[in-house]
Structure formats: C-alpha cells, structure tokens
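Lab channel / #folding
Pinned by the channel admin:
"Please post every new chain as: sequence first, then the structure tokens as a reply. Keep commentary short and put observations after the output so the thread stays searchable."

First post following the new format, from NK:
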Amino acid sequence: MKNKILIIDDEQSIRLLLENFLSKNYDVICKSDGMEALEWLEGNLPDLIICDLQMPNMDGYVFLEKVRQRGFTKHTPIIMLSGVETSKERVKCYRIGAQDFLAKPFNPEELGELIRKNLHPIHYAVEW
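Reply from TO:
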C-alpha cells in the first residue's frame, strides 16, 4: 500500500507538478488552501503533508498550528514550501512544528529525499 501525501498550495501549477512527480510512488491528495485541507483532515489521515506558506484564507503558519493541536495529526510530518525563504520564516516554521522547509523554486529530487527521510527516518541512511 502506498503512503498518502496531502499537498496544500494555492498555485495550481505547483499542485499539478507535485502530483505528477509524486503520484508514481505515493497516493497524492491536493487541496488549494488550509481551510479546505483541514476539512479533508476531518475524515482522513495522511502519512505526510506538504504545505505552502503563503496562501489565501489560511496561511501555512495557521494551518501548521491547527494541525499540531489536533490529536490525530499531531505527529504527522510536515514539509513547508515557500517562495519567501529567509531564516526568520524557516525558524518560525520549525518552532511551530514543521519537520522541514524547502524554498520555491525547489529541486524535485531534494523534495523526494525529504519525503523519504520523513516517512522512513530510521531506515533512510544506506550506510552508517
């Protein structure tokens, strides 16, 4: 059974790019903003979430805080994506509970490695 990844981004091109890249190895669900994603999370549990930082209706910071306050998603790994990449944003995301942060435009291979690292942290390294 494939791992389930929830993608949240208001840019349709990013959602399509991620869905195309990831759907070979994962079940991919796409939502266009944090509110829509929280509604979906009411009855579903992904193995990992990839979330944009700057979105209308509910930005990535608020979404991240709400996910961390929920029982079922409290420990779900979250990778934040952002077109604004400064140390301040990165640190704020880590403090709220993000596992990783990737700046747009991003290298799909790097995202793939971050996903593997977060889904299988103990078995990630090929050699020790």
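NK: The chain has a mean pLDDT of 91.
TO: also worth noting, The helical segments are 12-22, 34-41, 60-69, 87-96, 108-119.
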